[in-house]
Amino acid sequence: MVNVPDGAGGYRFTVDLALLDPQLRTARVVRRSQPVGTGRSPTTVARDGNRLLWVNSQLFAARPAAPFTVTEVPGLR
């Protein structure tokens, strides 16, 4: 996950998709997801079939409240 300045003094979040070399020693970023605001601040990413999913953590919520949700990473498969 990448914190990207939003130009207004805040941040948006993206996910970089990287491919590992056959020896699992280096990775190359091949795509970046669409950015989302802090209301959907991701904490972890997992693959489900052809989809990448992230947990929406509510890190910036004044009062985090259940249920915490899972969202498909926008723009990456």
What can you tell me about this protein's structure?
By secondary structure, the protein is an all-beta fold. The chain has one domain (2-72). Helix content is 0%, strand content 47%. It is built from no helices and seven strands. The chain has strands at residues 2-5, 11-14, 16-20, 27-32, 42-48, 51-56, 69-72. A three-stranded antiparallel beta sheet has the order 5-6-7, with no helix packed on it. A hairpin with a 2-residue loop joins strand 5 and strand 6 (51-56).
Give the helix tally.
0
The total tally of domains equals 1
Relative strand content: over 45%
- Number of β-strand runs: 7
The quaternary state of the protein chains shown equals: single chain
Indicate the percent of residues in helices.
under 10%
- Average pLDDT value? 86
Provide a quick synopsis of the model:
The protein is mainly β and 77 residues long. It has no helices and 7 strands. Strand 1 (2-5) and strand 2 (11-14) form a beta hairpin.
